[in-house]
Every structure is written in C-alpha cells, then in structure tokens.
Write a structure and sequence with these properties.
Keywords: Disulfide bond, Glycoprotein, Hydrolase, Membrane, Serine esterase, Transmembrane, Transmembrane helix. With 553 residues, this protein is an alpha/beta fold. It has 15 helices and 22 strands.
C-alpha cells in the first residue's frame, strides 16, 4: 500500500505536469506570434485556416489633422504590445456594390501573413486596385477579396497595404501642401516600413516583390520611374501600367472648388476651399466627389522650393529604373468586356473611338476626323456598330487602355536593362472569374480582375471547382516561384507543364494561362503594329496636359 503522502505528491506532480503543458502551449502561442520590430512589439494570432500567423492592421503612417489632403507622417513608436488583430480598417470611399460610404482616415495600416516555417522567406507586397477611389485588403461587411491562404502554402510572406483614395489620396493642386500623389506617397511609406521591419517576421529584405492589380499595378509601375524603385527588388504588373492613357493627369485646382460649391461654399480661392473641406467630415467630401462623378488619378506634380515632387514627368518621355530587375506583366483576354453590357443605342449616341482618343490627343477638326476614321476603319470597317461588332469595340478599348500600354512598358524595360521580363495573358474562364461574377457578366472570356480569385481566397464566389484549383495552384506557384527564385517556372512539373520564357529584344514571348497552357509569340501583332504606327503619326498631337475624361462612359 502506498502512503497518503505518496498520493498527495503524485497529485501535485500531475497538477504540475498539466500546468507545464498549459504553459508550454500558451507560451508557444504567444512567443510564435510576438515579434519585436523597429516600431515596437507586435502580437499577431494564429490563423484558423492554415499554418500561418496573421498580423492585421499594423499602422505604418498617420494623416495630419491639420492637412488631411497632404503627405502622411510615419507612425510613431508603438507603446506597449500592439495587438494586430483588426482587419476591418478601410480608407474613406463609397463602396462599389452597396454604394454606402465607409472608412476612416486612420486607415494607413498593413497586414503581414507569415507561414510557420523558420527559414528566411521571400516577401510579396500587394497593392490593391480600384480606380484610385475604391478598394481594401481586409474585410468589409463580412466580405473579403484578398485572403492569404493560397500564398501561405508556398512559404512566402505576404503583405497587403491600405492607402488613401479619392480626394484624400489624389487631389493634385498648385500647392506645396497638396502637390498630388498623396496615396502613392502612402504606398512608399508602407514599402519603407516593410524594408525596415520585415526581417523581424522572418522576411528577406533583399527579396521584396511588389505586385499590384489595376490601379495598384499602375502605382507599382509608376514607382519604377521614381527614386522609390529602391524598395522594389522585383515587380508583377497585373492589368495596369504607367503607359495607360488614363493614368497621369496634371494639376487641377478646380476640383476642390467644385466640391466646396457642392457642399455650400462658392469661392475661387483655393486656400479657402481647402480650409472649408478640412472642416467637413470625410463622408461629406467623399460622397460629394462621388455624386459629382469626379474621378481621381496620380498626376505630374509641380516643383516647389519646399517640395521637389515624386512624379515630375510623363513615363512616355522618361526612363524606368529597372536595371537588373525582373518583372512579370500581363492582362486578361478581354479587359474591357464591360462595353458589351451597353445597348446599341449607347454606341449610336456616343463615339467610343473619339471619346477615348480625345483623352490622349488634342486634335484639330481635320486631324481628329482623320485619326478617328483610321482607328474606326481598322477595328470595324465602315459598318455601324451592331451586336457582333461590339466585340471589336472590346478589342479597341482593351488595346488602348491595357494591351498596347503593356507592350510599350515591355519595350522600355528591355531597353533600360531589365534582367528578365515575363509576359502573360490570362485566358481561363469559369464561374469563379471574380469580376465577371461581381458584375454579372456571362459572355466572353476573362475580363479585368478575373484572375484575382485564383491568387487570393475570397468569399464572393462559390468554392473552387477541380479545374479552378488547377489554375489557382498554377498561378500561385508561378507568382511565388518568381518571388523566391526570380523565375516563375524554374522546372517543369505536373502543375507547371510549360516553361515560361522571358521576352527579348527580338522575341515577344508570352504565356497563355489556361488549363491548356502554351507559349506564344507576338500577341495581337497586327493590332500592336497599328498602334505603333498611329502613335508615331499623331505624336505631335499628344496632349501635354491631361484633364479628366470619363473613360467608362
């Protein structure tokens, strides 16, 4: 028989063992999710859908209360341990689907997603799109578009960032306090934060790939023409370049005056208008801009004694800083498919060719008629637009906005020393194509934004089918291979049956991304050749000063 003391000691030992197990478990949870950065201590939390840690809502900059339309300020040191668990922080905007105002100016945050493995990891920083007025990377009304889970399986760190949009991000004025491109400067501060702090999360500071979609891709490309290129080791440009017709505008002091008038103050004094708008709520300002159908873009800034500017010249006449960089760029098969939704009456009342050309070219009557006639004849001949010819309109709008600018970009990258440039066209079509689903489009192939559901997990579509999962595995493998090795297809495999060849000065190779992948050359050659000739012919008429034209009319 054992003594009473023996049983007591045994119970104590058992209790101690349980306590140690609990402590080990709890400590493991906290130690694995707690990091010390230059900014301070940050605690994340373990994901419930995979073996990775989420750090949500880390502040990287703050907006000045005295000048909310001006440049942001790096966020100060964190006090105590920052609990990174908020993924619902959104910059001010009117939501595209609900048409509700949402957001706060305290939105300059980023999210970091880190797989459990301890090796140093390549870093991928994503910049969302949204025509410089919309978009978020967290959750809004239980909806999310940029879930990280697909990337986490490939052992890379994913960073998603928020930046100011609309009037707070892209007022472009003849004023050193609001010179323009505030949203892009926000992005630069986020990239600086990543460069300075990502090593604390296990990231390799010499392997930072910045990728974006649409407006986010345009921002990424524009940064390659600025001093901020040093924060980008590699780039992936998805459906947007610095050469698109509607990317860069010029200073326009009238916009704050127009919004002020709409809100009750009529003035021609810019300072008075800005002071008035600062006194109004962000909701008032953002909703007013939306109701007035005002759009915002990056701009070519003026130089001031106190501010030298971020973007001072059009990329058409400058060189990108891409020496020794590797770049992926591409687009979908029918980027501007949205025009198919328009009734025939729309095309009878609106000259789509003239409207889009007028944005970039300042024609006199004679030259304008000649130019429009040449474009119209190339795409639809002498026929009036009908249901069948709408597809030709899709080709035209896609070419001038996405396809031809991508070719100009590729050529510039090669001419200016880029080490490798990979070109793709995304052709896969299913019920999981994101934007076709959101916009209720059932005809045609892939449109603008359709590839995103095969990179990021979203609850806006049904679960991926077996073919969908092949495309998802293929795209995330190529994107993360590029981030890790600088080559999207270092080896052939079951999921990567084709080696993706880069372009060269003599060969414009491209990868067709679909279930049946294949390499091709000289995509849309006849159309690209046409635009080469067109721009050369009408170069003297290109607008030196761009002003707003609503390309989505």
């Amino acid at each position: 028989m054992f003594s009473k003391d023996f049983y007591i000691n045994a119970v104590h030992l058992f209790a101690l063992a349980v306590l140690i197990c609990i402590c080990v478990f709890v400590c493991d949870v906290y130690l694995d999710t707690l990091v010390i950065t230059k900014q301070g201590w940050i605690r994340g939390y373990r994901a419930s859908d995979g073996n990775y840690v989420k750090y949500m809502g880390i502040p990287y900059a703050t907006v000045s209360k005295d000048n909310p339309f001006g440049e942001s300020i790096p966020f100060p040191k964190l006090k105590g341990v920052f609990q990174a668990n908020n993924n619902k922080i959104i910059c001010p905007q009117v939501d595209m689907l609900s048409l509700q105002y949402v957001g706060t100016l305290n939105c300059l945050h980023l999210n970091v997603f880190v797989p459990y493995t301890k090796v140093s990891k390549a870093v991928m920083v994503f910049i969302h799109g949204g025509r410089f007025a919309l978009g978020f990377t967290g959750t809004f009304q239980a909806t999310h578009f940029h879930g990280p889970r697909y990337f986490m399986k490939h052992d890379v760190i994913l960073v998603t960032i928020s930046y100011r949009l609309g009037p707070y991000g892209f007022f472009c004025l003849d004023s050193p306090e609001v010179p323009g491109n505030q949203g892009i400067n926000d992005v630069i501060k986020a990239l600086m934060w990543v460069k300075e702090n990502i090593h604390a999360f296990g990231g390799d500071t010499n392997k930072i790939t910045v990728f974006g979609h649409s407006a986010g891709s345009m921002i990424t490309d524009l940064l390659l023409y600025t001093k901020a290129e040093k924060y980008i080791d590699q780039a992936i440009l998805q459906s947007g370049t610095a050469h698109a017709a509607d990317v860069l505008w010029n200073v326009n002091n009238s916009v704050p005056l127009i919004i002020s008038k709409h809100l009750g103050l009529e003035t021609n004094d810019l300072k008075e208008a800005l002071s008035f708008l600062k006194s109004r709520s962000t909701q008032d300002v953002v909703v007013a801009a939306k109701n007035l159908s005002i759009e915002f873009r990056p701009c070519i800034e003026k130089r001031f004694e106190t501010y030298d500017g971020l973007i001072n010249k059009d990329p058409f006449i400058t060189k990108p800083s891409v020496k020794n960089k590797k770049i992926i760029l591409g687009h979908t098969t029918e980027e501007y498919n949205m025009k198919l939704q328009k009734p025939i009456q729309y095309f009878e009342e609106n000259d789509v060719f003239y409207n889009m050309l007028e944005y970039e070219f300042d024609f006199n009557n004679e030259k304008g008629k000649e130019a429009v006639s040449s474009v119209r004849h190339f795409y639809i001949g002498d026929k009036e637009v009908n249901e069948d010819l709408k597809w030709k309109i899709v080709n035209f709008t896609s070419d001038i906005t996405f396809n031809y600018p991508a070719y100009r970009d590729m050529d510039k990258f090669i001419q200016n020393g880029a080490e490798k440039v990979y070109y793709y066209i995304f052709a896969y079509t299913s019920s999981s194509n994101l934007y076709k689903k959101l916009l209720n489009i059932s005809v045609g192939r892939s449109i603008h934004g359709d590839e995103l559901a095969y990179l990021f997990e979203t609850n806006s579509i049904p679960p991926l089918s077996a073919p969908d999962r092949i495309i998802m595995e293929r795209m995330t493998t190529m994107w993360t291979n590029f981030a890790k090795y600088g080559n999207p297809t270092p080896d052939k495999s079951e999921i990567l049956p084709v080696l993706w060849l880069p372009i060269s000065k003599d060969s414009r190779n491209y990868l067709l991304i679909d279930l049946d992948e294949e390499m091709g050359k000289d995509l849309y050659k006849d159309r690209i050749d046409f635009w080469d000739t067109f721009y050369e012919t009408y170069k003297p008429f290109m607008r030196p000063n761009k002003t707003f034209v609503n390309l989505l009319l």
